[in-house]
């Protein structure tokens, strides 16, 4: 539904961005449907935002009018706590300010990117490399960084065996990034329906999790598993696929608990971990990495009036591989 949201005036350290494209992340769906808890409406979501700078505040040094820029999942943090000081603003101990549904410094509720403009502090605005088309860059601001960060932290690279569970928005970026890092990548998808795509993105192997034989065949195989699934799945079954000292990282965020039997961690000294988006410097590093390796998101561009239909398709795992809204269609 179309509505009008107010943005704050451009402050001395703010950047006004004319949004060109906004990706649809499954988190937008969890959020607007209240799956992660109640929210205040009206609420505009969207945290995969790209566009051009149209105005800058007097003290802005990092961006200039005309620059191609992006905004991801957060628009501020305290900057002072140990985690902010370490460049891990996503883990700000005072809570980072989410791009949507968060209380902004002026007391208003932040509103996301399914909109024509946004005002953001310069420090939370990323540079989008020239070589990446806007629409393919948008999903990097969440799906890209959310998968790059754990792949980088747990050192995916030559000689490591990485599995990606779920080939949706996050999953397809995980495959491309892990392959570009030099890892041997396996996709674990519900069916073999997207096998050709997965192999084209750089995966070496592709298995259907609907087939119980997959779990027997791949037991004790992976150094790192990135679980991007938006619904609860059997963690024990996936943990059994880790080899010695392997780690299963949860990035998918179903509202339900994911129970784990400790015995599934004892074998092979396995770890079960989680990871949330990435820091601002790391997000820039990811954008530059994608440009350098010639990778970006596979997108289906839609008009603003097709968002509800796109949500239904995401819920049916019928997305190849990210819906991106052409914001000109709502201008
Ligand atoms: P998506 O495009 O819908 O992808 C999720 C994929 O999971 C689907 O394409 C499907 O892949 C698989 N899947 C869905 N339902 C399943 C089920 N019942 N059983 C098994 N597999 C299933 O979603 P997304 O945008 O990539 O987001 C994925 C999750 O990550 C969401 O929960 C989102 O909120 C979360 N997220 C977390 C962070 C973070 O910072 N940690 C950031 C962004 C998003 P196949 O068809 O290949 O099986
Ligand atoms: Zn997201
Ligand atoms: Zn902080």
Automatic annotation (TrEMBL):
Keyword line: Metal-binding, Oxidoreductase, Zinc
Cofactor: Zn(2+)
Domain (Enoyl reductase (ER)) ranges: 2-325
Catalytic activity: a primary alcohol + NADP(+) = an aldehyde + NADPH + H(+)
GO function terms (MF aspect): alcohol dehydrogenase (NADP+) activity; metal ion binding
InterPro entries: ADH-like_C, ADH-like_N, CAD-like, ER, GroES-like_sf, NAD(P)-bd_dom_sf
A Pfam family matched in the record: ADH_N
Its EC number(s): 1.1.1.2
PANTHER family: ALDEHYDE REDUCTASE
Protein name: alcohol dehydrogenase (NADP(+))
Taxonomic lineage of the native organism: Bacteria, Bacillati, Actinomycetota, Actinomycetes, Micromonosporales
